[in-house]
Amino acid sequence: MGDDLKKKMVSALTWSMIDRFGQQLIQLIIGLILVRLLTPTEFGLLGLIMVYVALSYVLVESGFTQALIRKIDTNETDYNTVFYFNIFISILLYLVLFFTVPLIANYFKQPQLIPIGRTIFVAIIFNAFCLVPSTKLSKSLDLKTLAKINILSIVLSGSFGLTIAFMHFGVWALVAQQVLFNFFRVIFFQVFVKWKPQRVFSFKVIQDFWKFSFNLLGTAILNVLFNYIYIILLGLYYPIKDVGYYSQANKLSDTFNFTFQSILIGS
Predict the structure, then answer these.
(1) Are 219 and 183 within 8 A, CB to CB?
(2) What are the residues whose beta carbons fall under 8 Å from the beta carbon of 187, sequence distance 6 or more?
(3) Residue 232 class from Cβ within 10 Å (0-12 exposed, 13-18 middle, 19+ buried)?
């Protein structure tokens, strides 16, 4: 039994590395091509709106997936409750952002952010549908399936993004890439996991999980704000193209750093 668990752990770690390394490598290749096709201004517009998308992802997740993984005797009531909670919060946030994005656009003096935001915020809802199925795979150490889903999704969404960029639709190539990545993940989770939510919900589950997840949520929010603080400041006081230069340089730096760390750890 011990040997089986050890093999399962080694397999999980291997596929986790393949997942993260594969996503980074594919995203790097796609990103380098997009840099040649799009302008810094278009990357800057995406960078500004992604602040709110990233923050929404954290609020939707609320630390509940970690609570699910931590709980030993997780049951269907737990999974279904968190699933419906994620969906509810994602729809609520989408509506709030849909109606407040004109204020965001006015704040940064970028009216283009209104249609861009109202489109890309759909990714928040798609991402909410993926949280529980992804957690179930992680909890069962089936990271091989999770890696397949993530890599297939990033390849397909990246291909669509490149196609749209070649058709000279500008920033919409980046918007499509973000939305379609989460959309394809929803589809592939249905194909590979086949988990169907039931009509079960418990406020007690929310109450119990909240005690554990509250501190995680606070830390995650601070991390997002810290990671995007320079983009916010650049968007306020500098031309939008400077936001694009910074966001892309920062993204490439993170990708290279993670890639080399992965290689060193693997070796």
Answers:
(1) no
(2) none
(3) middle
Q: Give the tokens for residue 106.
A: 């006015």
Residues 192, 149 contacting (CB under 8 angstroms):
yes
Q: How many CB atoms lie within 10 A of CB 163?
A: 12
- Of all helices (H) and strands (E), which one includes residue 188? helix 172-192
Q: What is this structure's pTM?
A: 0.89
CA-to-CA distance for 197 and 141, rounded, in angstroms? 21
Quote the CA–CA distance of 177 and 28 in Å, as a whole number: 14
CA atoms of 113 and 165, how far apart (whole Å): 18
Report the C-alpha gap between 78 and 74 in whole angstroms.
Answer: 6
Q: Tens digits of per-residue pLDDT, 150-207?
A: 999 999 999 999 999 999 999 999 999 999 999 999 999 999 988 888 989 988 988 8
Residue with tokens 């910074």: 246
